[in-house]
Amino acid sequence: MNDHAPLSAREALLAEALGDVAALLDRIDAVVHALNAAATTANDACANLDARAVAFDASIAALVDASKRHLVSHVATKTAEMTRAASETQLQAIRAELHALIRSELAASLEQARHSNARGPHPDLRCTWWAHVATAICASTIAGTIVSYLLSN
């Protein structure tokens, strides 16, 4: 602008308007610089957040894997314990049934032998009976041993 006093009111208003526009332009430049700084800061924050998110994802994946391994180990342990307990219960039940069966078969065979002895000794019958008794006892013992072996493994 020129150094002398304004000549008219119009020039004075124009000079004042130009001063206001200059002040607005200075403020707009300041806002642009502030917005650029804010954008740079936001971009840096996003990059930092992305890096932290990758690290967080890796950490969560490792935690999930460790949890899976622990859970599988726990389930396997509990399953083995339950299987062992069920097998032992079944083995005891089978043994009890096997003992009861052998006792009942032996009792029936002994009763039959008493009746045949009461009728009189017959050499062929006595030999046949003892062979059947021995076979039944051996078969029951072998079956019980096989069942015990299979259930204990």
Gist?
With 153 residues, the chain is mainly alpha-helical.
List the helices and strands and how they pair.
Layout: H1 9-119, H2 123-152
Helix pairs in contact: 1-2
Polypeptide structure, described:
- With 153 residues, the protein is mainly alpha-helical.
- It contains two helices and no strands.
- It has helices spanning 9-119, 123-152.
- Helix 1 (9-119) runs antiparallel to helix 2.
- The longest helix is centred in the middle third of the chain and has 111 residues, at 9-119.
- The chain is rod-shaped and about 160 Å long.
Separation, N- and C-terminal Cα atoms: 107 Å
Largest sheet: none
Look at the structure and give the mean pLDDT.
84
Counting DSSP E segments of at least 2 residues, the number of strands comes to 0
Structural class: mainly alpha
Low-confidence stretches: none
How much helix is in the residues?
over 70%
N-to-C SSE series?
HH
From the structure above, extract its key features.
single chain, 153 residues, mainly alpha, 92% helix
